Amino acid sequence: MSKPKVGMISFAHSHAFSYLHALLALPEVEVIGITDENEERVKAITTEHGLSYYNDYNDLLAIAELDAVVICSENVHHAEHTIASANAKKHVICEKPLGISVTEMEEMIATCEHNEVQLMTAFPCRYIPAVVKAQEAVQRGDIGEVLAIKGTNRGTMPGRWFVDPALSGGGALLDHTVHVMDLMNWITGAKVNEVYAYAATLFHEDLPTDDTGMIHVKFDNGVFGVLDTSWSRTKSFPTWGDVTMEIVGTLGAISVDSFAQKIDFFSEDSGKGHYIYWGDSMDFYMIKSFVTALIEGNAAPISGEDGLKSARVALLGYESVKKGQPVFM
User: Fold this and answer.
1) Predicted confidence (pLDDT) per residue in 44-100, tens digit
2) Which homologous superfamily is 126-281+312-328 in?
3) Residue-by-residue DSSP string for 230-245
């Protein structure tokens, strides 16, 4: 594939704007259209960049020269949009979580395989410089055998459709398990076989879903993992949240603070401090890796199966919460 032509399905998730900017910064790819049921949400960017707009995503998929799509719709629509794209013979990169049930994620993967198109899960945290260096150190054996990983993905409550279970499929436990769970899967190279979780609504009154989560996992190679997935950061916090890990091995430990490359900025206009990240853009490198895979005809570097593995842990977490005990794969 010489110069892939890419479209975007939905800007419901704010990551879509960053992914678009990454695509526009890559001379080896061409963005040929955007579809969103809410035209006002994308009108400014379609006008600024001269991009074609489609109200119905099927009209975008009907474009013969379209090679691939980036899907950033509400979680509940990921399966529909991915399956339709695959049946239209378009490669897919889909926002996390890949889906809201194991059955639909398996169907997404199977449909893409049947139509011989790539399905990549959007896990940009794999491209954070600190995470890359930590994974390389583990692979070299710098800290011996990994024994345990403690992680956090604590953020501010996102509001909008994220807190509507009918559109999101869950709350903080689903929203913030999948990123760091994927990193744990990647770093250990092992499979989770036991999940024990806690979830509740503690920080925001009358929220229709959980805003607090703590998930514990046991891998089939004996490694333990624990992850704080809460929406516990207040509006006054300088940034949306964090991604951290403490990787403990037999010969040492690695501490990862993914967004530590920052400038502290204090604004009279907003009345609070801000963290301004100055490190490499994880979104840019993720999108670039997807485009490179298409051009070179290689498999997507983060597969649909990767997305399924991490989302399945979150879904089992909710099952554990209901039962009040560990559940097993």
Assistant:
1) 999 999 999 999 999 999 999 999 999 999 999 999 999 999 999 999 999 999 999
2) Dihydrodipicolinate Reductase; domain 2 (3.30.360.10)
3) ---B-TTSSSSB--EE
